[in-house]
Amino acid sequence: MTAQDTALHEAALMNPNAFVVNELLELFDDSENLERTMKLIGEDCVWVMEPGGSEYHGHAEIRAFVDVAMSGRTHDEGHRMEVLNWFADAGYENLCVEYTHGAKLTGKMTAGIKANFKTGVSRYCITYHIQGGKIDRVHEYINSTSSWLNLVMPPALGHLHRQAQKKLARVADKGEKP
User: Fold this and answer.
1) Closest listed residue to residue 67, CA positions, set 133, 165, 148
2) Candidate from 76-85, 110-119, 125-134, 136-145 with smallest mean pLDDT
3) pTM (global) more than 0.90
4) Residue 15: count of CB within 10 angstroms of its CB
5) Among 57, 65, 104, 157, which is 20 to 30 Å from 165 by CA?
């Protein structure tokens, strides 16, 4: 454990924002845990994905987006999320995480195409704004080390957005909670 990690763990005991930062960093090793993720999201949170600028507003839309994104991939030791660097301000209101993301695509979100992306193929930077122990803004940037992935990323994120909207509509038609 680094000195930065130790300081965060100590702060998390007294500061609700530091607790959220600690949870977010731990979630990189528990990235399939939708319920744990959603407990950190504020009701009026806005999540923006780049490239493309897809936006998700509020708890229900973000839950649909995260659920759809999670359903299209699996992870194992060679295909996982790995934090490369992170920093937060003194009050733990702003967190920036640089990470790499490898995954096994299930084909569900890729028109049946299955693929494996080793950890390190795509690089991400995600910024969180945390207020009162809840995330209220997220901006996520994706950059691949492969030029062809950079070409397909905007349409893929657009497809993900449409699928999340369809899921949200299905849930609303059934009168269920997202």
Assistant:
1) 165
2) 110-119
3) no
4) 18
5) 104
Strands 41-50 and 81-88: what pairing? unpaired
Locate tokens 């693929």: which residue? 115
Higher pLDDT, 3 or 112: 3
What 107-114 contacts at long range (C-beta under 8 Å, 24+ apart), as own/partner pairs, is: 108/71, 108/72, 109/68, 109/69, 109/71, 109/72, 109/73, 109/156, 109/159, 109/160, 109/163, 110/72, 110/156
As assigned by CATH, the class of the 3-174 domain is alpha beta
Could you tell me what percent of the chain has a pLDDT over 70?
58
Task: Give CA 112 to chain center in angstroms.
Answer: 23
Measured from the Cβ of residue 69, the count of other Cβ atoms closer than 10 Å reads 17
Tokens of 17: 């924002």
Nearest in space to 5 (alpha carbons), one of 31, 39, 28: 28
Q: Show the tokens assigned to 166.
A: 């369809």
Strands 94-105, 115-131: pairing kind = antiparallel
Bridge partner list, 123: 100, 143
